Prior knowledge:
Number of helices: 8
CATH class: Alpha Beta
Structural class: alpha/beta
Mean pLDDT: 94
Oligomer: single chain
Distance between the termini: 18 Å
Strand content: 15-25%
CATH architecture: 3-Layer(aba) Sandwich
Bound molecules: nicotinamide-adenine-dinucleotide
Amino acid sequence: MVLTGAGISTESGIPDFRSPGGIWTKYDPEEFTYQNFVANRAHRERYWKMSLDIHPVLAAAEPNAAHHAVAELERRGRVCAVITQNIDGLHQRAGSSPERVIEIHGTALSVLCLSCGDRLPREDVQARVQAGEAAPECRSCGGILKPATVSFGQAMPERETALAFEHAERAEVFLVIGSSLVVHPAAYLPVRAVESGAKLIIVNLEPTPCDRLATVRLRGKAGETMSALVAAIGP
Ligand code: NAD
């Protein structure tokens, strides 16, 4: 089983949250909570304004060698599930089977109506924002439209979270790529896996709180490290 965080996508040009130059060095995370988004139109307008800055980067990103390595491991029958904290859809674009990718923080590629549950392609709604709609509303029911990502203060999706823990408990090997392992409950998944008997491998640029539990720690860039790892395992 594979768990990925923002660090697997930095080589695709998407900044992570916590490294220097990361997203939260530019914006205040305290402001962009689910509660603010729902409660107040001015907050929604600021959110969509921020999206004009951030979304084009996400939309233009291509999968990198690490995403391709994960897809290759699946083709070789070595991957049961890819649990990702990322919202960028790059695992699926690299060839990981959509049914094996579990997006525990949702996806930025869809938008949901918080009233009628309608799901719309992000590109369509983003085009409306670009054309001047400051806080777009559902055209069917007038409800609030929100990207299908899990915001600060928003409940985790129940099905995806339960599935992630089930996979962690069944994993033989639990491979973490590019996560600081400080955001819960994702950060608890490697602990649960090790408690259930899995070997833990961590690929990350810097130390994580789970390093002491890991059988193997590979300190390096996700792209080159994962390419070397796939080459070393063989077919
Ligand atoms: P994080 O920002 O907390 O940590 C990223 C980790 O990756 C850091 O420890 C960093 O040292 C490491 N890293 C950075 N570049 C790397 C590289 N090239 N190779 C290997 N390691 C690298 O991210 P997180 O743990 O995913 O948790 C924070 C939240 O960020 C998640 O909720 C996630 O949804 C969100 N996020 C997602 C995206 C995305 O979808 N691409 C981008 C930014 C943030």
